[in-house]
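Supplementary Methods S3. Complex input for the alpha-D-galactopyranose-bound model.
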Amino acid sequence: MLKKDMILLIGLLVCVKTCYSLDNGLALTPPMGWMHWQRYRCIVDCKEYPDDCVSEQLFKKAADLIVSEGYDQLGYEYIIVDDCWLNKTRDENGRLQPDKDRFPSGMKALADYIHGKGLKFGLYEDFGTKTCAGYPGVLGHLEQDAQQFADWDVDYVKLDGCYSNITEMYDGYTQFGKYLNETGRPMVYSCSWPAYTEPLGIPGDYETLSEYCNLWRNWDDIDDNWANVSRIIDFFAENQDRFIPYAGPGHWNDPDMLIIGNFGLSDDQSELQMAIWAIMAAPLIMSNNLATVKPQHKAILQNKDVIAVNQDALGIQGRLVFKKNKLEIWTRPILPIVNNHTSYAIAFISQRFDGRPYHLNTTLQEIGLNNPNGYTFKDLYNPDKYDSSEVYKAIKVTLFPTAVVFIKATPVDNEQVPNEKLIEVKHIF
Ligand code: GLA
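Predicted complex, serialized as structure tokens:
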């Protein structure tokens, strides 16, 4: 072999080990959809709870409602079956099988139904010997199960990490990803690996995750209460310098489901969860009863401007830029770009519990918005608040406890502003 060829071959071999890229062309913006877990958990008694049990009816109904309530038009597309869909044992050929009573038509038929609605089908499994709820995991069957998912026309796979050894996760998650790719069926790959290491103080391997997975759960499960949501927001803020570099088109950090529309969040807190998930470029996967979501919560989940921030094509995850006395400012660079300055989504939030409003003043420059000509504003939850012909260089907001003021700031082009002026704004509630 010529020396040159030898070098090429070595380069190729090194590349096979280190240059693997998921490159399935999926999740170029954060995935949007609905997943049953937070709201419905592992309810398997369909006699006692016919409307709430994990069954094909539940997912057909969710698919129906995603369409009839107009969520699909806003981008919500994945209907994801989480844990507790499986039979407790594999079949005689080692194949996974759904619970026969709750999924009598089988998973392919459910996929067909969901596809028939113009939506996509997601399915849960676990890298270990068992799923978190004790059903068969993929360990020992990685290739067979990846192929089974493809045969069922799955579009999105969530691979959890219960009943497995964290030292085996690197090989397990990367190998399963390769098997998914080898099926030839494009499937979004959601990896729970870091959710099992970070709580033990072991940082996730985000370099590898961003190469092999479309999204990954960085932390513990979300629950339907403000304290839990607040803890997740704090965790992502505390660790943002480790997480942000790995987010981008095709690969996202995942702070877990949207719980808006359930019982635990006030209206203000619901706006806040949606705003911070938009700033963090987080997957927008609802877990709620779509038939009973209150109108004001539906309006939040369907807010086009907030969704546009989340789905922004630059794909840059935003960050906490100011924090004092539990008052915070988060920013995210978004389109359009004007004169080399990006626009910004800005979330002002109060995490205080002392029941009174606080004022927050800042110049835009202080929070990194440097366009010398200033910005126009749109309040994304109160679109009539600002006159789009006015130009701002500073802002003053009044923040209520556990509430958000969410603004899009668009840079002003020189020529459009003959008389530059500085305007301070007070939010009047
Ligand atoms: C883990 C995951 C959850 C859910 C359950 C299912 O706790 O983090 O999102 O999938 O398992 O048992």
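Residues 319-426 form a domain with the Immunoglobulin-like fold (CATH 2.60.40.1180). The two ends are 77 Å apart (CA to CA).
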